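Renewal narrative, Specific Aim 1. Our central claim is that a sequence can be written position by position from structural information alone. The example that follows is taken directly from our test logs and has not been curated for this report. It begins with the structure tokens describing the chain, in the order in which they were read.
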């Protein structure tokens, strides 16, 4: 299955500059890539004119979101699958672009180690304990969602299902095996008869609201009444719908004795272990988190659609708001909201953009940040505003490279640093101590199971 696009860039493919260039063909060397996740490979892209000459011209290049990165002529594979690198010329008015799709097949690295782990509990006869697996590659990275074949060395002592649930049905020594791609991990249990004779649940409340966390403690005791430490407890619940609920799905979540109900009704929490079980019933009522709001003032702008907004206290002590615009040719409005009943516009800020989609202001009110889409040079990034005169901001600088070219979709501002979520796959940390001279501090790339600093 082909995936959606992420990384935008510009490259110059080599060698004959022309005043008026017409691209008629694009080629890639190699024509397709076979890679493993984590690897990088060279990819040379050449554009040719109608005479078959390689020309120096900008090209638009993109890779699959979260799966491929293209930087300085190298493709880096982030996850396994079949993807494409998409290349397009930059057409003139009324022209159709010349395009090229470069297939990229990415396989996972070979699994080198499989490790089974469980909660810190003792496995007794009649109890169930969930077993999990971490499968790692040679570089120590974890394989997401590995395919595991489970088995038990003696099913008269313990069985294991396809999800790693081990059920002790007898006593003795048994080994649980997990195999993935020919690599096996093993964990051995010595199972004894359960000493648990009673189980008591405490800490529950008889009535809570939807969304409240209901916490339980299960105490297991042996025949003498002594507490059995590390007894394996399985948690579940029974749900009786409220009259207002019709066939709800997934009415609550429960994990290790903590439970949250999403819909009203009567619930029964159940704790069980080998030889005993306990129950606790309680009612969940609607949260009714509804409050009536009174509109005391409004700043009206009927020429453009508003996107994001931010309210802050200016360095002059007055309160201000800034609103972005959708398809508003890069305009953002500035409002004085000191008196909510008398909101008025103080100024507007224009930047090179089609849309300004996120707005933030530093806690000290010293600077503001606008993220944008649709810049004329296709380098979107972030625009930094000087708020020394908060009612009349001025553009201090623009940060449009180093990972934010494709667009910033959310930001978090501190007095000294701006954290920008760029392209959906990385955090770019920008040093804004001097808003007229910006520096990139760090980039953190995110994958399904990792966060790495480059």
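The sequence written for that structure reads:
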């Amino acid at each position: 299955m082909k995936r959606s696009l992420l990384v935008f860039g510009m490259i110059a493919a080599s060698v004959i500059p022309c005043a008026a260039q017409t691209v008629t063909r694009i080629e890639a060397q190699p024509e397709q890539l076979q890679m493993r996740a984590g690897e990088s490979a060279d990819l040379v892209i050449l554009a040719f004119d109608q005479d078959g000459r390689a020309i120096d011209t900008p090209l638009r290049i993109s890779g699959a979101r979260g799966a491929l990165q293209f930087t300085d002529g190298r493709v880096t594979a982030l996850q396994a699958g079949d993807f494409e690198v998409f290349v397009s010329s930059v057409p003139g008015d009324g022209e159709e672009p010349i395009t090229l799709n470069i297939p990229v097949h990415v396989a996972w690295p070979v699994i080198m180690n499989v490790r089974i782990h469980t909660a810190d509990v003792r496995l007794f006869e009649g109890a169930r304990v969930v077993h999990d697996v971490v499968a790692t590659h040679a570089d120590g990275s974890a394989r997401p969602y590995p395919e595991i074949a489970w088995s038990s060395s003696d099913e008269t002592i313990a069985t294991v299902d396809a999800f790693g649930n081990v059920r002790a049905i007898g006593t003795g020594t048994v080994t649980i095996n997990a195999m993935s791609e020919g690599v096996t991990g093993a964990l051995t249990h010595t199972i004894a008869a359960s000493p648990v004779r009673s189980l008591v649940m405490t800490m529950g409340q008889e009535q809570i609201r939807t969304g409240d966390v209901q916490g339980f403690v299960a105490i297991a005791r042996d025949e003498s009444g002594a507490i059995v430490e590390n007894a394996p407890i399985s948690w579940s619940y029974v749900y009786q719908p409220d009259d207002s609920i019709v066939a709800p799905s997934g009415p609550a979540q429960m994990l290790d004795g903590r439970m949250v109900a999403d819909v009203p009704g009567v619930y029964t929490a159940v704790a069980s272990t080998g030889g005993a079980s306990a129950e606790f019933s309680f009612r969940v009522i609607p949260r009714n988190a509804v409050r009536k709001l009174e509109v005391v003032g409004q700043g009206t702008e009927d020429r453009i659609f508003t996107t994001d907004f931010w309210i802050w206290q200016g360095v002059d002590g007055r309160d201000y708001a800034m609103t972005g615009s959708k398809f508003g040719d890069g305009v953002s409005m500035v409002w004085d909201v000191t008196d909510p009943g008398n909101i008025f516009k103080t100024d507007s800020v224009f930047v090179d953009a089609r849309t300004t989609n996120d707005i933030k202001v530093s806690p000290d009110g010293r600077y503001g940040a606008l993220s944008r889409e649709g810049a004329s040079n296709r380098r979107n990034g972030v625009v930094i505003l000087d708020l020394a005169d908060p009612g009349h901001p001025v553009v201090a600088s623009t940060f449009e490279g180093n990972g934010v070219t494709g667009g910033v979709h959310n930001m978090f501002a501190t007095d000294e640093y701006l954290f920008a979520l760029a392209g959906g796959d990385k955090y770019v940390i920008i040093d804004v101590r001097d808003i007229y001279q910006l520096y990139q501090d760090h980039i953190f790339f995110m994958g399904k199971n990792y966060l790495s600093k480059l």
